[in-house]
Structure to design on (857 residues):
């Protein structure tokens, strides 16, 4: 493979592998939509009710993305410039909400913010009415809870990618924090933020359980719900597929806007030193940072604590079948995560190419985020059905779909760092004749260890927690852990389900933590 | 070496379907909804019972719920591997009949103990229940006796979305059948009682148990679960004077069934006392034919609605679109 790769770009993962990955993702997204359209034979154009759903979907996704990213900046900055005992653990823990299955997170949020939640109980003590979060506020609150951690981590990565020498230089030139803002931090944010906002916007675009449950009624109809309605209420797959196309169009539009406003940083290469805490600012700044971190931690961790407290009592009475399901899910998550990393590295290298080709590769990497899980699952089902029994393929298909679903996240994590490495060491490597596999092993991967650990952790945990397409493919004898938890809920066994949710949370977080810690140990 | 072998085998074992089924036995494939086939549903007992006499292997294939089940079978069309589809309800029957995928059961005259007469040639009912609002007796003292009283009360309720869930659709038809042209006004009056609308029953019931609302749309049989399985008698269903909407769950033989004879025998088994006795304490619904031994203790204490409301299968399909429009208009602002 290496000999056939183009010399100017890294070989083994080079253009060829990148396009194979892009093609696979296109097949899973556009291909499955086409399969549904083809089977339906007719594709009615979206009607007035659909456009109402589109408008609500875009509004809530835009608000969620903007607020998550805006709140993430001070949190990431505080984390980047302070060091304190337990900082690493806090960074990891704060990532946990992102890994939660939808309904578990919703219940956790309601434990805190619901009508009978902790805050409402406290208000009740003072004779005040309970909080009413159902409606647009609830939807955005839940989406911020989910996505703030991702935004913080991505932006924190941006701070780390500014060479430590620049901050040292800034300190010796007597920069004040306003100057640092303008000359170092703002250019970094210009490069990072559009991608962050885009990712969160797209996540919220396909929101279903969260948007509906907290949205408080048909006002909160998202496109994904309209897709459900088309499939399950109207038995009109053509309509569902058209709505799927609308989602892709939204994704494409948003991606183009994001790429257009992204400005490359050009900090140049540093000596690759670990970032040090710089510019010891005054006590006020310390206090502000501490307050920001405390508030963010409380907001993100309280619902998790609620999930834990709700599930712990029944933990000893967990049904035996959950153990097997858990083992199955862990193995599948591992396979999924490896596949995600392979796909992402290939795609990221293809995205380095200049011009349209690179942008297309990057856009292909974002596409699965906009894919309706229901359309994708149905399309895959239709594609596989003539070839094999979809039921016996349920688990492998779930692994592949979960791997593809995690690509957008890992791409967002890996690509900015890969760009830095390529810009900083690409020419040097070229001139030394270090190419292909050797370059990947000696130059690229060691510098990507941190994002790779993070990306692998994300992919594994997402695969662990996702209900995915398994419910559509229907093999009742081999449930995954999320499916078992959902089944317990559906069988009135709320306590056992709560215990299952704790197991799920622990395993998701455990997988994430192992990978992430491995990555973060890159710099001692 | 050994290690990697073991793990490879383990992965292979975990990822491939259990194909080690009995060698020569014919396989009866039953498509059903997930909670029927799950460890806690009727599935395992039904499988054991039928396999004891049929000399066959019964295999379940599952979909999320009744609507997903029909959606899947329609997708598979004439090439479906299903011999029997079990778990559709009356609101899906017209669509199912239209698909032309199902054939007559030929069971002859069965004496069902249901609130409605049943003589459908294709669909065999296997259980039924009434939709109802369930509440906690220790918390709600002033229990409303109809929709108007509920709308006038300060009580908070959680309902399911009719577009994505069976009980949600049931409630839509319940209000429509009780109030006809006045249904839109009832929904407007109910708007301030509704805390939220969830995608499915599990989410709604989970939020209710957590205390997010005073009442939740569920079944009259829901309190039986708490009573029998948890020895908790605090949950009750509120009887409404307008009557309660009926849900009847049905099974049918697939026209293209490969194991036609086994499918016939299975449908006969569905109406047998053995199958029917499994239903109450696994599916938490009423059996279509009350077994000679009667219902389990705990079912006697449930509310028995004075009047059963239900649209005939063909009519339900026409009415639901109009009813959905009213529902969306009333709650959408």
């Amino acid at each position: 493979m290496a000999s056939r790769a183009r010399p100017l770009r890294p070989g083994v993962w080079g253009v060829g592998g990148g396009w194979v990955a892009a093609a696979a993702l296109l097949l899973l997204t556009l291909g499955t939509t086409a399969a549904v359209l083809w089977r339906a034979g007719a594709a009615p154009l979206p009607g007035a009710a659909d456009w109402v759903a589109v408008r609500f979907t875009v509004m809530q996704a835009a608000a969620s993305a903007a607020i998550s990213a805006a709140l993430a900046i001070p949190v990431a900055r505080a984390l980047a410039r302070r060091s304190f005992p337990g900082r690493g653990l806090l960074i990891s823990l704060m990532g946990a909400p992102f890994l939660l299955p939808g309904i578990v997170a919703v219940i956790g949020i309601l434990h805190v913010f619901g009508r009978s939640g902790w805050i409402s109980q406290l208000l009740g003590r003072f004779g005040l009415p309970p909080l009413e979060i159902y409606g647009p506020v609830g939807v955005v609150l839940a989406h911020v809870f989910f996505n703030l951690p991702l935004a913080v981590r991505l932006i924190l990565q941006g701070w780390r990618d500014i060479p430590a020498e620049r901050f040292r230089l800034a300190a010796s030139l007597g920069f004040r924090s306003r100057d640092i803002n303008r000359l170092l931090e703002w250019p970094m944010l210009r490069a990072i933020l559009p991608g962050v906002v885009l990712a969160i916007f797209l996540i919220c675009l396909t929101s279903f359980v969260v948007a509906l449950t907290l949205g408080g009624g048909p006002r909160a109809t998202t496109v994904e719900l309209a897709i459900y309605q088309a499939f399950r209420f109207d038995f009109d797959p053509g309509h569902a597929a058209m709505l799927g196309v609308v989602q892709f169009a939204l994704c494409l539009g948003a991606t183009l806007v994001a790429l257009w406003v992204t400005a490359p940083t050009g900090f140049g290469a540093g000596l690759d030193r670990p970032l040090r805490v710089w510019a010891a600012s005054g006590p006020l700044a310390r206090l502000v940072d501490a307050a920001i971190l405390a508030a963010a931690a409380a907001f993100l961790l309280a619902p998790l604590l609620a999930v834990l407290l709700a599930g712990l009592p029944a933990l000893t009475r967990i049904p035996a079948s959950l153990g097997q399901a858990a083992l199955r899910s862990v193995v599948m998550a591992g396979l999924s995560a490896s596949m995600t990393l392979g796909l992402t590295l290939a795609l990221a290298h293809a995205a380095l190419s200049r011009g349209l080709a690179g942008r297309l590769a990057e856009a292909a990497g974002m596409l699965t985020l906009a894919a309706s899980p229901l359309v994708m699952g149905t399309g895959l089902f239709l594609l596989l059905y003539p070839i094999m029994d979809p039921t016996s393929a349920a688990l492998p298909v779930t692994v592949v779909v979960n791997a593809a679903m995690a690509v957008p996240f890992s791409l967002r994590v890996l690509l900015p760092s890969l760009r830095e490495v390529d810009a900083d060491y690409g020419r040097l490597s070229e001139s030394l004749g270090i190419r292909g596999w050797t370059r990947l092993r000696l130059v690229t991967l060691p510098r990507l260890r941190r994002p790779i650990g993070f990306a692998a952790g994300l992919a594994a945990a997402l695969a662990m927690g996702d209900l995915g397409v398994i419910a559509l493919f229907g093999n009742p004898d081999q449930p995954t852990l999320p499916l078992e938890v959902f089944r317990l809920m559906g069988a009135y066994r709320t306590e056992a389900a709560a215990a299952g949710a704790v197991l799920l949370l622990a395993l998701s977080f455990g997988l994430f933590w192992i990978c992430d810690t491995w990555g973060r140990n890159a710099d001692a | 070496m050994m290690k990697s072998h073991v793990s490879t085998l383990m992965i292979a074992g975990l990822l491939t379907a259990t194909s080690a089924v009995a060698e020569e036995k014919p396989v009866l494939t039953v498509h059903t909804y997930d909670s029927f086939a799950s460890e806690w549903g009727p599935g395992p007992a039904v499988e054991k019972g039928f396999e004891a006499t049929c000399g066959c292997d019964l295999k379940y294939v599952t979909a999320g719920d009744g609507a997903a089940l029909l959606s899947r079978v329609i997708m598979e069309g004439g090439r479906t591997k299903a011999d029997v589809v079990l778990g559709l309800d009356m609101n899906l029957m017209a669509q199912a009949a239209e698909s032309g995928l199902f054939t007559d059961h030929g069971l002859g005259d069965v004496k069902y103990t249901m609130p409605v007469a049943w003589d459908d040639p294709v669909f065999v009912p296997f259980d039924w229940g009434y939709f109802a609002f369930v509440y906690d007796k220790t918390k709600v003292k002033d229990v409303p006796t109809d929709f108007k009283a509920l709308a006038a009360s300060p009580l908070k309720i959680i309902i399911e979305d009719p577009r994505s869930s069976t009980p949600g659709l049931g409630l839509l038809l319940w209000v429509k059948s009780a109030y006809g042209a006045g249904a839109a006004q009832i929904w407007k009056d109910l708007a301030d009682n509704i805390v939220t609308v969830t995608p499915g029953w599990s989410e709604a019931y989970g939020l209710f148990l957590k205390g997010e609302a005073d009442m939740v749309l569920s079944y009259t049989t829901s309190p039986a679960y708490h009573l029998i399985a948890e020895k908790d008698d605090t949950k009750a269903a509120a009887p409404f004077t307008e009557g309660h909407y009926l849900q009847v769950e049905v099974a049918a033989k697939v026209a293209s069934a490969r194991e036609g004879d086994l499918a016939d025998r299975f449908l006969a088994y569905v109406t047998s006392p053995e199958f029917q006795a499994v239903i109450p304490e696994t599916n938490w619904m009423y059996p279509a034919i009350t077994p000679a031994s009667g219902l389990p203790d705990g079912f006697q204490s449930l509310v028995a609605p004075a009047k059963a409301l239900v649209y005939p299968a063909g009519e339900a399909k026409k009415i639901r679109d109009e009813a959905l429009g009213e529902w969306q208009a009333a709650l959408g602002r």
In short: Chain B has two domains: 22-128+247-287, 129-246+303-331. The longest helix of chain B spans residues 313-331. The mean pLDDT of chain B is 90. Chain B is about 40% helix and 20% strand.
